[in-house]
Amino acid sequence: MKTLVVGDIHGCHAELLELVEKAGLNLDDHLIALGDLVDRGPGSEAVLRHFMGHNRRRSLLGNHERKHLLAWKHEGSLSASQRMVKEELSEAFYAEAIAYFETLPLFSELPEAILVHGCLEPNVALEHQQADVLTGSMSGEKYLYDRYGEPWYQLVDGDKPVVAGHHDYSKTGTPLVIKDKVFLIDTGCCYGHQLTGLLLPDFKMISVKSRANYWGLARQGTKTGSHCLP
Ligand SMILES: [Mn+2]
Q1: Fewer CB within 10 Å: C terminus or N terminus of the chain?
Q2: Quick check: 135 and 35 in contact, CB under 8 A?
Q3: d(CA 100, CA 111)
Q4: Helix (H, G, I), strand (E, B) or coil at 22
Q5: pLDDT digit string (tens) for 204-216?
């Protein structure tokens, strides 16, 4: 049995299907997304429908899903890409999506690796990590930077490898592997780079090319169209 762990999908449905096909997943294999299923790309609804209601397809909670949830509870506000998705989806499906986001975990511990969307604080047990650290929210990243002054992934020191998404750290769409221990696999698909998955238990990296700089195009559209960006 294989597990494909996939980085930030951000509504890139065509690339998701291509990646799953390229990885050769069978019906009894597992697909686990690191979160940020939605926003910025063109197919947030299709990506959600791919995951919702399938027990072999799971996702963690990304900072984007967390922001949708917080805004739903009037504890935060939506950014431009999130307002677009909320407008795109029907009211009923958006409510279903929110209910789905409520079920998403902040981390997952597999036999081979620990999975998080954003960051991990060194020497703190998984159960005691802060939600804004695990999702890589701005407050969590600031907390880590103020406290440690070094990127979190340089400080990871556990026995188990860690797989994270959240930032295209290379800025070129290339996954980064730090000391054979931390696998950073957000490769900026919504910015026209790549969608990357890590196939377990072999730790084999698989990428497919993005078909467009979707978020760049969407932002351009908002300058000439009817949307207003802040
Ligand atoms: Mn992201």
Answers
A1: C
A2: yes
A3: 25
A4: helix
A5: 999 999 999 999 9
The residues placing their C-beta within 5 Å of ligand 1, an ion, are 8, 36
Residue 223: band (very low, low, confident or very high) from pLDDT cuts 50, 70, 90: low
Give the residue extent of every domain in the chain.
Answer: 3-117+161-224
| Ligand 1 geometric centre to CA of 166 (Å) | 4
Ligand 1 geometric centre to CA of 110 (Å): 22
Q: Which residues contact 143 (CB under 8 A, 6 or more apart)?
A: 130, 132, 133
pLDDT tens readout for residues 3-47: 999 999 999 999 999 999 999 998 889 999 999 999 999 999 999
Q: Is the domain defined by 3-117+161-224 classed in CATH 3.40.190.290?
A: no
Single pTM value for the model? 0.94
CA of 102 to the centre of ligand 1 (A): 18
